[in-house]
């Protein structure tokens, strides 16, 4: 018995934010000193490193649970199931519902409870809970859903990943240009009738020295935003950490699946940073002593930015719905999912479609 994806859905906000949006921002360093480079140079350098040309922001009247609800509804419709048959709703996010132009996060009741309410599910034994695990949260939710299914206490689970990072960024920090909003969701069902489903998984938390590589900190503008905290990161340390640890975790997970490396059809990795993701995948294949195959890793970060837990399920939905010309997933294909993020957490799944 294993978990099988039977429905996918996403919500990509309609508000497109190009790099020109940041032209008038006053960017500073961590000491509160205005950067000497002009904003055109700053955004150009960021685009070369991350690949981001555009990102999407949620509408002013939307919060994270709204985005998650839309993606969940689409996944349910795609699966064709009755939502009353769901045993679990697992909602991965990091900052809860943050209304625009406010500084307070709202997580009570849980976002999963809010989505269940919006879906009008009457079944009291459909359990909803939230999962905070950094950017790898959606993968971790899938791993937990699979555990419920394998244990026999669940037959169907809805796993959502949604975030509105645009609400928690420091406008004086150039890293704010990386973050975006979005949502993705899947329906996972117990399967013992064919070979499709989760074949192996791996999770790890590096906390001894790495826990503060991503954190909630003060604005770089020490005078204007003294009492408000924003998402912050040590980009260089994260990059070095990811290249050292993620390829090894991916290999360990893939080896445990029992498949030969030449059978791997696709790698769907958290859309964090195009340059970093490419380096991770290249190092993964170097561990096997072979070159990276062409078209193995789809990337949409250039148009959608980094929406944290939403990047992987959003991208998966786009592929499954034939929205990416050069990337397809066929029945029997082997796909490796992987992510890295705040914690510092790393995880991976090998899945056969």
CATH architecture designation of the largest domain: 3-Layer(aba) Sandwich
Count of domains: 2
Question: Could you state the CATH homologous superfamily of the largest domain?
Answer: Thiolase/Chalcone synthase
The spatial strand order of the largest sheet comes to 1-7-6-4-5
Q: Report the end-to-end length measured between terminal Cα atoms.
A: 15 Å
Give the tally of β-strands.
Answer: 13
The CATH class designation of the largest domain is Alpha Beta
Helix content, binned percent:
25-40%
H/I helix tally: 8
Secondary-structure element pattern, one letter each: EEHEHEHEHEEEEEHEHHHEE
As residue ranges, the low-confidence spans are none
The name of the CATH topology of the largest domain is Peroxisomal Thiolase, Chain A, domain 1
Largest sheet: 5 strands, mixed
What is the structural class?
alpha/beta
Strand content: 25-35%
Gross morphology is: globular
Regarding quaternary structure, how should these chains be classified?
single chain
């Amino acid at each position: 018995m294993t978990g099988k994806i039977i429905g996918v859905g996403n919500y990509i906000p309609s508000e497109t934010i190009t790099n020109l949006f940041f032209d008038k921002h006053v960017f500073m360093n961590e000491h509160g000193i205005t950067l000497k480079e002009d904003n055109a140079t700053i955004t150009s350098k960021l685009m070369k490193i991350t690949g981001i040309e555009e990102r999407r922001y949620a509408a002013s009247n939307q919060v994270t649970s709204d985005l998650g609800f839309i993606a969940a509804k689409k996944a349910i419709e795609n699966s064709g199931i009755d939502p009353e048959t769901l045993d679990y709703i697992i909602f991965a996010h990091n900052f809860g519902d943050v209304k625009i132009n406010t500084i307070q996060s709202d997580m009570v009741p849980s976002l999963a409870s809010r989505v269940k309410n919006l879906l009008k599910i009457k079944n009291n034994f459909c359990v909803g809970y939230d999962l905070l695990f950094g950017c790898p949260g959606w993968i971790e939710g899938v791993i937990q859903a699979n555990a419920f299914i394998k244990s026999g206490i669940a037959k169907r689970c809805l796993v959502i990943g949604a975030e509105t990072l645009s609400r928690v960024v420091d406008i004086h920090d150039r890293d704010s240009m990386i973050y975006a909003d979005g949502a993705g969701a899947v329906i996972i069902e117990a399967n013992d009738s064919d070979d499709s489903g989760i074949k192996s998984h791996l999770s790890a938390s590096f906390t001894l020295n790495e826990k503060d590589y991503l954190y909630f900190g003060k604005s770089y503008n020490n005078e204007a935003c003294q009492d408000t905290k924003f998402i912050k990161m040590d980009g260089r340390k994260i990059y070095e950490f990811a290249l050292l640890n993620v390829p090894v975790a991916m290999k360990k997970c893939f080896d445990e699946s029992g498949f030969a490396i030449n059978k791997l059809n696709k790698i769907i990795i958290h859309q964090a940073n195009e340059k970093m993701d490419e380096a991770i995948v290249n190092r993964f294949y170097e561990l096997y002593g072979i070159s990276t195959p062409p078209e193995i890793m789809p990337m949409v970060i250039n148009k959608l930015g980094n929406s944290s837990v939403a990047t992987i399920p959003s991208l998966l939905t786009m592929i499954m719905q034939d929205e990416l010309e050069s990337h397809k997933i066929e029945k029997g294909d082997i796909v490796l999912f992987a992510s890295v993020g705040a914690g510092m957490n790393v995880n991976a799944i090998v899945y056969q479609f």
